[in-house]
Design goal:
single chain, mainly beta, globular, 119 residues, four-stranded antiparallel beta sheet
Length: 119
């Protein structure tokens, strides 16, 4: 069992920055890939970014490339999402997710943190 808790969301102006944090607890040694997803009202939950266990491999959805950076600190059981040059279309609830080693699926999800970007 792994528990994920997001923090760092809030209200920012367009062009501003936020850093989201995700704290993991429980059987964190089983985690492999960590990721961030987001969901706007009336839309499906969408992939944002993911990072390998070592942090050496990352990828992003096209709409955030060059603006967002995912990172992790395994010693602290933390994963981060640095969001720069925010746009109103980035407004959503952001969720942290974790996969378990040996599986291709996302096994655990956080409760979400709201990000609102004003124009």
């Amino acid at each position: 069992q792994v528990q994920l808790v997001e923090s760092g969301g809030g209200l920012v102006q367009a062009g501003g920055s936020l850093r989201l944090s995700c704290a993991a607890s429980g059987r964190t040694f089983t985690n492999a890939v960590m990721g961030w997803f987001r969901q706007a009202p009336g839309e499906e939950r969408a992939f944002v970014a993911r990072i390998s266990w070592s942090g050496g491999l990352t990828d992003y959805t096209n709409s955030v490339k060059g603006r967002f950076t995912i990172s992790r600190d395994n010693a602290k059981n933390m994963v981060y999402l640095q969001m720069n040059s925010l746009k109103p279309e980035d407004t959503a609830v952001y969720y942290c997710a974790a996969s378990r080693i040996g599986t291709n699926s996302w096994s655990y999800w956080g409760q979400g943190t709201q990000v609102t970007v004003s124009s």
